[in-house]
Amino acid sequence: MITKDSKRILVADDSIFFRTKLSDILVEAGHKVKFAKDGRELIREISIDSGGIDLLMLDLQMPDIDGFGVLNWISENGLQGRFPVLIITGVYEPGEVMDKLKALGASGLMTKGLTPEQIVFRVNRLLFPEKVAQGQPRIRVPVSIAADFILGDITRTGFLLNLSDTGAFLNTKSELLTGAVVRLRFSLPGTARVLEAKATVKWSTTEVANKTLFGGYGLMFMSLSDEDTAAVKGFVEAEARRLGLDKI
Given CB 3.0 to 4.6 Å as the disulfide criterion, which of 61, 69, 180, 227 pairs with 65? Predict the structure, then answer.
């Protein structure tokens, strides 16, 4: 999802390939990005301007000073809680590691195998917690689902890039106005049954729609059958568990 509220993200990872990948994804999503290639350089950056960091993305496995060492330094210098820390790891970590990370102040965890949509989802979930407090869905999972939607008498196409039991984010080349009502048709992954929903366009990223992977429109479901609502809710909850969104 493209954000209109650009944030400052500091990424610490010793892989130039992954730093470049993250830069492309995060800048595309509307954020400002700085980098550190190892723990020692990261500590220097934080020491210079800890107030200029909205989110730290921290690789656990770095030479010299690893992610655990950085978290310890942040805690020892009274900076824990100053900014959220999203841990980057090559694999899902066992429970005891997750517990240790939480105790050291980590706010979330992502693996390097996530898709761009999933990375942006994790990042924005930490950067904009107030959206949850304002009543937006607590569970919203990244997806890539082909969808048809009818506006007036014309059938158009697009992709759902995230989904909750109350709405979805629609990427499409068609232009939609805020407040427009569409009839949406899609199938959940692994199923053949077509779900139908009446939805309204609540917000849009019109300045970037049609130009990037993440441009599009936020839809809120207005009507969805009880059976379809249960199917969507079950899928979202299962996918959240699979992706670890119910963890730190």
Answer: 69
C-alpha neighbours within 13 Å on the C-beta side of residue 63: 3
Tokens of 17: 């390939």
What proportion of the chain, given as a percentage, has pLDDT over 70? 85
For residue 200, what pLDDT is reported?
Answer: 94
Given a cut of 50, whether residue 133 has pLDDT beyond it is no
Which amino acid does the sequence have at 106?
Answer: A
| pLDDT for the residue 204 | 76
List the one residue out of 236, 205, 234, 235 whose CA is nearest residue 219: 205
Contact criterion met (CB below 8 Å) for 109 and 248: yes
| Cβ density class 125-144: b for 16+ within 10 Å, e for less | bbbbeeeeeeebbebbbbbe
Strand extents, DSSP E, the chain: 8-12, 32-36, 55-59, 85-89, 108-111, 141-151, 154-163, 167-171, 181-186, 195-204, 217-224
Q: What angle do CA 144, 161, 228 make, to 5 degrees?
A: 80
The full length of the chain comes to 248
| Selection from 238, 3, 243 nearest residue 114 by Cα | 243
Tell me, what's the pLDDT at 65? 92
Tell me the three state secondary structure of residue 131: helix
Residue 217 reports pLDDT greater than 90: no
Exposure b/e, 194-232, CB count within 10 A at least 16 = b: ebebebebeebbeebbeeebbbbbbbbbeebeeebbebb
Looking at residue 156, its amino acid is R
